Known about the structure:
By secondary structure, the protein is of the alpha/beta class. It has helices at residues 2-9, 23-26, 30-44, 52-55, 59-70, 101-111, 115-127, 172-176, 202-217, 229-244, 268-277, 287-299, 328-331, 356-370, and strands at 131-132, 144-151, 155-159, 182-187, 198-199, 222-227, 250-254, 312-317, 340-344.
Amino acid sequence: xxxxxxxxxxxxxxxxxxPDRLFLELGLDSLTSVELRNxxxxxxxxxxxxxxxxxxxxxxxxxxxxxxxxxxxxxxTSGPSGPAGPAAGxxxxxxxxxxxxxxxxxxxAGTEGRLYEGFELLQSVARLRDTFADASEVHPAPTAVRLAxxxxxxxxxxxxxxxxxAGVHQYARFASSFRxxxxxxxxxxxxxxxxxxxxxxxDALVGLLARMVREQAGDEPYALLGMSSxxxxxxATAARLEQEGGGPAxxxxxxxxxxxxxxxxxxxxxxxxxMFEREADFALMDAARLSAMSWYxxxxxxxxxxxxxxxxxxxxxxxxxxGKELAPEEWQTGWTEADHTVDVPGNHFTMxxxxxxxxxxxxxxxxxxxx
Length: 371
């Protein structure tokens, strides 16, 4: 395991990889994590999900998981895990009768222009799932992963979006720019993993997120950040924390639109298509993720931002997703409660992928001004 990880990261030997250190702290991002998944799938002959590195966060933990699936005893983790097996390509689509039938039906609805019916299907699934009415009912809390560590005083806490590809992995490339600069932690959102309950109300959701933020921040100054719909959660959580005392030093919204913004309708198909295109590199859009997305869209569909005490930075993409020549006001978000707005290179997706370093520099400079 350590040897394979070292190869992916370009290290000369396995000794460069600490077995109990988190993959994200070792330097893996959303792209190299897929490269590691593919290498391990080839070595073991196992079909591994794209999120396996995030689901088992350290080389030691992932090695134990692979040995369990292979039915072997864990060995020294300095080399590739498990015996060599047949080459494994991309994870095959599940067959009929499996949980993934929901995903195939939703894809078909999208390609046939029947998204309304597709979301009705997902909402029906969501209504059959368990819910929680209070944060105290959720133990353990959803995943929290430290993505970067550094000495600067304002730590950054990132909240996952509530789309089907959401998760702590969506901030991996962005956070790599903060290594040795400042602490960056990403929080998952309840209900996107199999077996997790969904929030019964907006109050229950925000209460849980506020609890998770307090657990991560302690007494240190912090800022909240959210990409896309994650910005809605960051903003709502900041409002709750300000009510309870000990609110954030600032809030960063990365290309976030207010739910119901008419601008979203002009490239909704591109957003959905972009999710499907990126599925192999991020997370399998199974019934749990898809139904959670539908539930959150419904739960927060009428949410509107109030005024925060903390300063708010809105970082927007400078290119429309559909590639058409449009006036900025026709497609860019115009979050009226933002105190400062900066446009960065890229579109809604690439500003956090190939161009994430530019986005990170804007955020880092603004955070420095807070303290």
